[in-house]
Design goal:
- The complex is a heterodimer of chains A (264) and B (288).
- Chain A has 264 residues and is mostly helical.
- In chain A, 82% of the residues lie in helices and 0% in strands.
- Chain A folds into 2 domains: 1-34; 42-263, MetI-like (MetI-like fold, Orthogonal Bundle), CATH 1.10.3720.10.
- The longest helix of chain A is centred in the last third of the chain and has 39 residues, at 166-204.
- Chain B has 288 residues and is mainly alpha-helical.
- Chain B has 2 domains: 11-55; 78-280, Orthogonal Bundle (MetI-like fold).
- In chain B, 75% of the residues lie in helices and 0% in strands.
- Chain B contains 10 helices and no strands.
- In chain B, 40% of the residues are buried.
- The chains are: A mainly alpha (264), B mainly alpha (288).
- At the A-B interface, helix 1, helix 4, helix 5, helix 6 and helix 8 of A face helix 1, helix 4, helix 5, helix 8 and helix 9 of B.
């Protein structure tokens, strides 16, 4: 127990050292003039700018707009993908019938839909939400179907033997057993959704949002510092969102093997 | 991080169960295949009929889209393998950039991943930085590369490599790290040298995870290939064709490009899955 604790602490310290090391390398490379300063500004300047942006209300409004579109698209994707996934996973005929259609839609890189959707809906929030939704549907859908397939058949059979109907089995056994898979799908979709939100905004180029901030900074002369500060924000958002979702998963489904392992 | 459906093979009911008997299984599979193609055909026909009846500019009938794609790219002379000048100028450069970017990312990711994953300390040192690098939505970095390289192939290559390398790297590192301790002991007893250990021990045990990373990287490469070409300022590529058609409100070309990209994505995915099955064998595909 003690050894484990020492090891965890050591790993943590090493991680901090790694971050500092990466930071120092970026700083030195820029300050020593190995890379031109306009290309890669010193890490300290980028970080200072990122902190400064936290007090910039226009920038925060932009981040808020991005997060709203992200959350709305992700929410809609859940509302579509979970019921459809449950249907596909529990009725084999529907699954077999829709598989070809799904297999043709899924490999399409969602970024390629940006021009079409902007022609249809204009380049506003609607477009962004629709694209985020389209991209986030797939991981949730596939994880739901996969999770249903992994449900223990003994539990299902037991309930059936006691005379429970199909819907009762779905709600009492299959849905709880699938929930961790769905949650993992949502977590993957959250990252994909952020990619799509930022990509749509960068291409739209006007309005407000984190991607728009980055795109406009990229056009300005000497704007690399702002671009990188925006990137730091985007990465931090991604990390925070992921951490929050992992924590929720752990709280909701403490019985799944990997979470149990972590507790040990 | 392991609760992830494997794309492509997820949720496919295994019809070849031991109890079912071969023939029943085969006929069930045939019926399933028939059903899914029939449904696809019906969906396309309904779209065709609805599009013709409505005459909507935004949703042209599929027949015309296919025809247009054929005219645009595949009606060239035999000497060019039926590719038109348009295809040679736009599709091939895109594919080349994507292949080069993906290959670079895969090689770098696997090499660095094994290096990081072999030592607990190195892993602990790099992990937070890697997690951050992965968390950055890749399109956000593209403007940086535009500033550094200006528009053109180097910028696009950098964008693809820089976004596709993280999933392979992280997955390879985790796969290498989880090599069974017993096998490490056996390797020590057998006095395997570093190269033998790498080839016989670390790579095989990390292989399922490596492929899980490669699949993610492949779809990211495709996304970044298109995205980096969509930016105003590019001169060629599939994405350029797309923006060009968008600016002319040429919906037919937009749809044709989408068809092409869908087919491309499908082929690439299937290709990678085939390689994976060859190397690992069915049923042992890793989850992320």
């Amino acid at each position: 127990m003690l050894r484990v604790r020492v090891r965890v602490r050591q790993d943590f310290l090493l991680g901090v050292a790694g971050v500092l090391l990466a930071f120092a390398i970026c700083e030195v490379v820029s300050r020593a003039g190995i890379v031109r300063r306009t290309y890669l500004p010193p890490a300290s300047e980028v970080l200072a700018r990122a902190v400064e942006l936290a007090g910039d209300s226009a920038f925060l409004d932009g981040v808020g707009a991005t997060l709203r579109a992200w959350a709305l698209g992700l929410g809609l994707a859940c509302a579509i993908a979970v019921p459809v996934g449950l249907l596909l996973g529990s009725v084999p005929v529907v699954d077999a019938a829709s598989r070809a259609v799904v297999e043709f839609l899924r490999p399409l890189p969602s970024v390629a839909l940006i021009p079409l959707v902007s022609l249809l809906l204009g380049s506003g929030t609607e477009t962004e939400v629709v694209l985020v939704m389209y991209a986030s549907v797939w991981p949730i859908l596939f994880n739901t179907v996969y999770g249903l397939g992994e449900t223990e058949s003994l539990a299902k059979d037991t309930l059936r033997a006691f005379g429970f109907g199909r819907l009762a089995v779905l709600l009492r056994v299959e849905l709880p057993a699938t929930a961790p898979f769905i949650a993992a799908g949502v977590r993957i979709s959250a990252a994909v959704a952020l990619i799509l939100a930022v990509a749509t905004e960068i291409l739209a180029g006007f309005g407000e949002g984190l991607g728009i901030f980055i795109a406009q900074a990229g056009l300005a002369t000497d704007g690399t510092r702002d671009v990188l500060a925006g990137v730091v924000w985007a990465g931090a958002l991604g990390l925070v969102v992921n951490a929050v979702l992992v924590r929720i998963e752990r709280g909701l489904f403490p019985w799944t093997p990997e979470h149990r392992e972590r507790k040990r | 991080m392991s609760r992830v459906a494997v794309p492509g093979v997820s949720g496919v009911p295994d019809v070849s169960g031991a109890a079912g008997g071969r023939r029943a299984a085969a006929s069930a599979a045939a019926r399933g295949a028939l059903l899914r193609w029939a449904v696809l055909a019906v969906a396309v026909l309904v779209w065709e009929a609805a599009a013709r009846a409505h005459g909507s500019v935004y949703f042209p009938p599929p027949g015309r889209i296919v025809r247009h794609a054929y005219d645009l790219w595949f009606s060239g002379p035999v000497a060019h393998a039926f590719l038109t000048a348009d295809a040679v100028d736009n599709i091939l450069p895109s594919l080349g950039r994507m292949a080069a970017g993906f290959a670079l990312a895969a090689v770098a990711g696997i090499a660095l991943g094994v290096a990081v994953g072999r030592s607990r300390r190195a892993y602990a040192l790099c992990n937070p930085v890697l997690q951050f690098a992965r968390a950055v939505p890749p399109p956000a970095l593209v403007p940086v590369f535009v500033v550094i390289f200006d528009f053109g192939t180097p910028m696009q290559l950098a964008s693809i490599v820089f976004s596709a390398v993280w999933p392979v790297l992280i997955n390879t590192a985790e796969g290498t790290r989880n090599t069974e301790p017993l096998r490490l002991d056996v390797a020590a007893v057998l006095r395997l040298n570093a190269a033998e250990r790498l080839w016989l021990l670390f790579l095989p045990s990390a292989l399922p995870r490596i492929f899980a990373g490669l699949r993610l990287s492949l779809s990211l490469s495709l996304i970044l290939m298109v995205f980096s070409e969509l930016l105003p300022g590019t001169a060629d590529g599939i994405g350029y064709t797309l923006t060009d058609a968008q600016s002319r409100s040429d919906l037919l070309t937009v749809w044709a490009v989408l068809l092409l990209l869908g087919a491309l994505g499908y082929l690439l995915n299937t290709g990678l899955l085939t390689v994976e099955r060859r190397l690992i064998g069915r049923g042992r595909e890793g989850t992320r």
